[in-house]
Design goal:
One of its GO terms (molecular function) is ATP binding. This protein is an alpha/beta fold. Helices cover 50% and strands 13% of the residues. Strands 1, 5, 6, 7, 8, 9, 10, 11 and 12 form a nine-stranded mixed sheet that branches. A three-stranded antiparallel sheet has the order 2-3-4, covered by helices on one side. Strand 3 and strand 4 form a beta hairpin. It binds adenosine-5'-diphosphate and magnesium ion (MG).
């Protein structure tokens, strides 16, 4: 509004100057005309003088003529003197006519001048009146602008208050649902399942498989095999997805966690289960066989990662004032080593069984954080993951037959732009930290993998865990056995950590495995953890399914333990 007022003021000033110039021009013209008039007056006076003289001469001559006429009345006036007198009379007549014309034209000039002057004056008066009106309007606008500014300030303050309230309520809701939540997803029977060929499973009236979603929160495992004890067990989780439930439905329950992420809470989503039960499908989407299609298939089947990337950037675009930046790191935990899938050397030298471990038992005290790649859109994020995942698979195929022999961790770190300088576009890893993986502690308030002058807002970790099947079931030997043992150890360490948290033990054994160490920020505390148990419906896998559901039930203890400790009260995000 002040800008509009300034425009009005400038406009009025210009208009007044224009009118002043017009009035000045008119005044100059009047002076010119007055001078012209004075000259004309002078000439008029001269002519009048001359006419007067001419008149008196004419009178005198006429009287002389009359005197002369008396003695010689019959003779005609033919003398040169008389001729001259006649000419003089004509001259006088002409002069009189000129005078008349002159007077008329000067009167005309006067009238025109007066009209011009009057026009100028009325234009000036009009302009002044208009200026007054404009000034009044300007004042009215100014007061209106002031009023609007005040109400804007009030509304902004109220908006901030409501935003805080919303944040508190949202967190309260999330905490009521549980900071640690366990969902269970039963995948459909697929052509590669032995039971797929079973005619009973083809009959829609007979429920296929041995694992069933009784309702939204209950899963039933019912299996009656000859020479085996009857299994009839139910488990309750925060959410149970049946085989027909879509990726979109699963993401619908993940979505509120991204709001928490933007509110400054760390979030972790873990897919747990045996090989082939749908962990990668749930986290990423179905893998496409065609090279030109992203590895997680068509749009409607997108998994949590690409959907979360889109939602994250949508939420960021809704809050431009926060000016958050997103950096992505992608690592896999293989044989208790953390391998950086975005490291330059991994892109160029990825062949061979010798893997470039970021940590190892021998070099635990000299570690560097994984590469953090800035991403500016969901497409960047997805393309980065799409580019690095084949690396994982290729490496894996060279080492072992099964592709999910490592835990995949995709981390999105949200940082607030610092007033004293923005972080470099590409990370130059900072100095190594002693005794722990630096990136594992990049939480608000801790130095971790933070770059100088940046403030970590929150972290999102998406984890596609390796298959949880035990050695006996997988029947592997050699290096594959070592991998399986390593996976089992890390998953046991994960269960131990969650157990310690549920029992509120003073010591939580995060350091027992690289996996738990890496996830330390998002296990416990006020971070939001969602474990998605992926289970196969097949009878063949019933033992693994029961182990998986048992793990989920144990994790749920954490939630109960926390709720019992009164953690449902809304807590403030750490960096607020
Ligand atoms: P995991 O990662 O647990 O080893 P995958 O995610 O690779 O298992 O799934 C194994 C196969 O099952 C894949 O071909 C995948 O497309 C398919 N699959 C898993 N879950 C579903 C589902 N809910 N709907 C359809 N196909 C699924
Ligand atoms: Mg997998």
């Amino acid at each position: 509004m002040p800008a509009q007022g300034g425009r009005w003021g400038r406009f009025l000033e210009q208009r007044a100057r224009q009118l002043q110039r017009q009035v000045q021009a008119k005044e100059e013209r009047i002076v010119e005309l007055e001078t012209e008039n004075a000259v004309l007056h002078l000439r008029l006076a001269q002519y009048q003088g001359m006419t007067g003289k001419g008149d008196s001469t004419a009178t005198r001559l006429c009287s002389q003529c009359r005197e002369r006429d008396l003695p010689q009345r019959s003779t005609a006036p033919t003398t040169p003197q008389l001729h001259c007198q006649v000419q003089l009379c004509v001259l006088v007549q002409n002069l009189k006519q000129d005078m008349k014309a002159l007077r008329a034209s000067s009167l005309e000039v006067f009238r025109t001048c007066r009209e011009h002057l009057q026009d100028g004056l009325s234009a000036a008066v009009e302009a002044v009146q208009r200026a007054q009106l404009c000034h009044e309007a300007l004042l009215a606008w100014q007061s209106k602008a002031g009023h609007l500014e005040r109400s804007l300030q009030e509304v902004s303050a109220r908006y901030e208050l409501e935003k805080q309230k919303r944040k508190m309520l949202h967190n309260c809701l999330v905490e009521l649902k549980g900071n640690i939540r366990v969902h269970c997803r039963i995948r459909p029977l697929l052509p590669f399942d032995k039971e797929f060929d079973d005619p009973a499973s083809q009959d829609s009236s007979v429920p296929a498989g041995v694992v069933h979603a009784v309702d939204d929160e209950t899963v039933l495992v019912k299996c009656d095999r000859p020479a085996h004890p009857l299994i009839n067990k139910t488990y309750n989780f925060e959410r149970v997805y049946g085989p027909a439930e879509s990726q979109q439905v699963v993401f619908g329950d993940v979505c509120p966690l991204l709001t928490s992420l933007l509110d400054g809470y760390n979030v972790c989503i873990l897919a747990y289960g045996q090989t082939g039960c749908g962990k990668s499908y749930t986290m990423l989407g179905p893998r496409s066989k065609e090279a030109h299609v992203p590895p997680w298939g068509p749009h409607r089947d997108l998994g949590i990662m690409p959907r979360a990337a889109r939602e994250l950037f949508r939420l960021i675009s809704e809050n431009p004032s926060k000016s958050l930046k997103v950096d992505v790191s992608i690592v896999e935990v293989y044989n208790n080593d953390i391998l950086d899938l975005l490291a330059k050397e991994r892109r160029t030298a990825v062949s061979g069984p010798k893997r470039d471990a970021r940590t190892s038992k021998a070099a635990k005290r000299e570690v560097s954080p994984p590469t953090r790649q800035p991403v500016h859109s969901a497409e960047d994020f997805i393309a980065l993951a799409a580019g690095s995942l084949p690396l994982r698979a290729r490496l894996a195929t060279q080492v072992h037959a099964c592709s999910s022999r490592s835990h995949l961790i995709i981390t999105a770190t949200l940082t607030a732009a610092s007033p004293c300088g923005s972080p470099a576009d590409r990370q130059s890893p900072g100095p190594p930290l002693e005794g722990r993986p630096a990136w594992g502690r990049a939480s608000p308030g801790s130095p971790g993998a933070q770059r100088p002058a940046e403030q970590v807002h929150a972290k999102l970790q998406l984890v596609d865990l390796a298959g949880s099947e035990c050695v006996g079931v997988s029947g592997v030997t050699g290096s594959a056995l070592r991998e399986t043992l390593s996976i089992n150890r890390s998953l046991a360490a994960l269960a131990d950590v969650l157990g310690a948290l549920s029992e509120r033990r003073g010591h939580v054994p995060y350091r027992n495995s690289q996996l738990t160490h890496f996830l330390q920020d998002v296990l416990g505390g006020d971070a939001k953890l969602l474990v998605i148990l992926c289970v196969s419906p097949c009878q063949t896998h019933v033992a693994e399914t029961l182990r998986c559901l048992g793990f989920g039930a144990q994790v749920r203890q954490v939630q109960r333990g926390q709720a019992g400790g009164g953690s449902a009260a809304p807590r403030k995000p750490r960096n607020q």
